[in-house]
UniProtKB/TrEMBL annotation:
Entry protein name: PPM-type phosphatase domain-containing protein
Subcellular location: Cytoplasm, Cytosol; Membrane
Organism encoding this protein: Parthenolecanium corni
Gene3D superfamilies per record: Phosphatase 2C, C-terminal domain suprefamily, PPM-type phosphatase domain
UniProt record similarity statement: Belongs to the PP2C family.
Cellular component, GO, one term: cytosol
Cofactors demanded by this protein: Mg(2+); Mn(2+)
Membrane protein topology class: Lipid-anchor
Amino acid sequence: MGASLDKPKTDKHNEHGCGNGLKYGVASMQGWRVEMEDAHCAITGLSDELKDWSFFAVFDGHAGAKVSAHCAENLMECIVNSEEFRRSDITKGIRSGFLSLDNSMRTLPELASGEDKSGSTAVCALVSPQQIFVANCGDSRAVLCNSGIPAFSTQDHKPVLPGERERIQRAGGSVMIQRINGSLAVSRALGDYEYKNVEGRGPCEQLVSPEPEIFVRDRDEKDEFLVLACDGVWDVMSNEDICDFIRSRLLITDDLEAITNQVVDTCLYKDSRDNMSIVLVTFPGAPTPDPEAIQREKQLEDIIERRIKNIISENEKVSFEKVLDMLEEEDLPNLPPGGGISAKRSFIESIFIKLCPEQANTLSVSDEVPQSNY
């Protein structure tokens, strides 16, 4: 997992955009990790020939940020410039793009010398007017919400999966404590060249494979949104949690950056200890702000504020932790599904600090109010 900071870095990187009938928002946070190793890519309109295509991706680096950053800059071009893609064989073009990128990165000086041993998972989506192509390599994940439920998700590539374990063992490795040779927690990734040097075996037969698993799905008018995120998100929220939470937030606001910020804040408060990155892509069928949902959210916040005032008035020099504990014990109405009280943590902190500024120093290092830089 790597070393942790004394307190999390909660400032965020945000992006947003729209095109081809899609909207997207991005949020990433370093969190408790010593280094930010995630990267991402979001493009609507790829070229003159592919102006109605879009590309989105999340890359979760490990042992450094070199490979994840390089992949974010180059994977899309490797895919669309492949001979197979130009022949309109999209799935083979995606596979070829992954493998060619992994092969070419070997020549980067830091990687070729072994000075940099980093690797990266990759999950990406190519969205055409008719179809969605999703490719996954590692344990970052894509989930598609259709009609309010997770209708599709990628499979995390872990060494304990039977097919992955077989390949690892055939290449002379072992799976211990759910890791390759007791060390690496993912079985497919880009980079990680120290795990890709078994003679006599092809690139997809090594201890770590760069081969993506590719899924194709016809677009549907009931498609609502697609989520691409690293395991810092999925460690603490399930596919259903994410779909329920984001859907509830889309009924409150159409600001996708704000929604992705709420996701990573909620994950931090659910005790995710990893970097966190999320790309949220909405389709024309996505929920839109609803006056009744907005009113319910306001009523919830009014109830929380009144309850905090009561707790403070009834308890001398009460700490934030005590306030939070008491709120968690209550059956508060209309908490965000999939997020619960953690999704309102920032609001609770803001009210507490407003009412008890002299008690602000009682917040623990993990309770600092997150700040956004967008």
